[in-house]
């Protein structure tokens, strides 16, 4: 049975590691700081709409502490801004040609990884999750903990993808091998453009911020079209969201929002906006498509992270005013 190494045991990585370990799959996590210490001492408290259970999960501080074996599967689950350093540590630890799966938002990680390692796979992550306590991982999804698509980068599927999908399925995470996983990840990129808006104005104000979200999405679709990039809708029209991952409350758990909001709430000092809205800005600049809304939102993400702002610290009107000042036309 293949061993899964989860590099980055945050919200997504924590749910994956605990879910696999709970059903007897061999898992090793790589974490840091207080998160590492808590998991080493207590394991991961996996909270779902149906149960809360402490799961023992072996966890180390660096890949050099792991004796890699034939058949190991490496899952990257850190934020994109932390990927280059993680790849450097993996190379120093002796990882070579085993499969590496990028279970991360955005579309940059696969290309970064391919510069260093030959066997790269993308994972579309649909997993509403969070953690607040250092030994916790929470999923708000039922009946499955989430839905993942798995495929080779830049396309196709192989036996490694089938092995990963099988492991995920065993852990109650929907695993779907996908020939066009990057098309799905570009579709998720469009969805994730809202992350910084939510982080700025807060979950409760998102209805009033809908025009900003729509303008960011329109820019993204124009930039993707100009670049000749195919994307696939994995939003509300995807039937798996209703069939496999209805979002419900978990008793005793309150979330501040998505991954960017969570980074601000934890005072992480950085957010992944450069690789979400910033990816649209990059494509727009390469292909002559104006992207003023995403440009502004990208700058805002950096400002909020550097300033230590809390989620929801900005009003919708203030955000609209900022966009008007930068000629984004809102």
Spatial arrangement of strands, main beta sheet: 5-2-1-6-7-8-12-13
Please state roughly what percent of the residues sit in beta strands, choosing from under 5%, 5-15%, 15-25%, 25-35%, 35-45% or over 45%.
Answer: 15-25%
Say what the CATH topology of the largest domain is.
Rossmann fold
Helix content: 40-55%
Distance between the termini: 54 Å
Q: Mean pLDDT, nearest integer? A: 96
The CATH C-level class name of the largest domain: Alpha Beta
CATH architecture of the largest domain: 3-Layer(aba) Sandwich
For the CA atoms, what is the radius of gyration? 19 Å
Largest sheet: 8 strands, mixed
Count of individual beta strands: 14
The tally of structural domains comes to 2
User: Segments where pLDDT lies below 50 for 5+ residues?
Assistant: none
């Amino acid at each position: 049975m293949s061993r899964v190494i989860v590099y980055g045991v945050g919200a997504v990585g924590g749910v994956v590691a605990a879910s696999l370990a709970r059903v007897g799959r061999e898992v090793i996590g790589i974490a840091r700081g207080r998160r590492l210490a808590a998991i080493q001492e207590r394991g991961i408290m996996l909270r779902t709409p149906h149960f809360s259970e402490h799961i023992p999960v072996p966890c180390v501080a660096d890949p050099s502490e792991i004796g890699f074996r034939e058949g190991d599967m490496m899952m990257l689950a850190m934020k994109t801004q932390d990927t280059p350093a993680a790849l450097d540590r993996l190379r120093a630890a002796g990882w070579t040609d085993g499969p590496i799966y990028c279970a991360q938002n955005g579309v940059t990680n696969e290309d970064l990884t391919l510069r260093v390692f030959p066997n790269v796979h993308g994972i579309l992550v649909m997993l509403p999750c969070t953690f607040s306590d250092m030994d916790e991982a929470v999923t708000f999804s039922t009946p499955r903990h989430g839905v993942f698509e798995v495929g080779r980068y830049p396309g196709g599927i192989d036996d490694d993808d089938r092995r990963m999908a099988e492991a995920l399925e065993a852990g109650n995470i929907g695993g779907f091998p996908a020939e066009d996983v990057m098309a799905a990840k570009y579709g998720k990129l469009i969805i994730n453009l809202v992350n910084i808006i939510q982080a700025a104005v807060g979950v409760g104000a998102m209805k009033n911020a809908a025009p900003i979200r729509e303008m960011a999405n329109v820019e993204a679709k124009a930039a993707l079209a100009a670049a000749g990039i195919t994307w696939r809708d994995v939003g509300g029209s995807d039937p798996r969201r209703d069939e496999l991952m209805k979002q419900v409350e978990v008793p005793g758990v309150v979330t501040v929002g998505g991954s960017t909001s969570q980074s601000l709430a934890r005072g992480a000092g950085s957010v992944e906006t450069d690789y979400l809205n910033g990816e649209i800005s990059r494509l727009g600049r390469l292909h002559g498509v104006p992207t003023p809304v995403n440009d502004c939102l990208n700058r805002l993400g950096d400002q909020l992270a550097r300033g230590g702002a809390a989620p929801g610290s900005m009003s919708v009107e203030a955000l609209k005013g900022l966009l008007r000042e930068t000629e984004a036309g809102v």
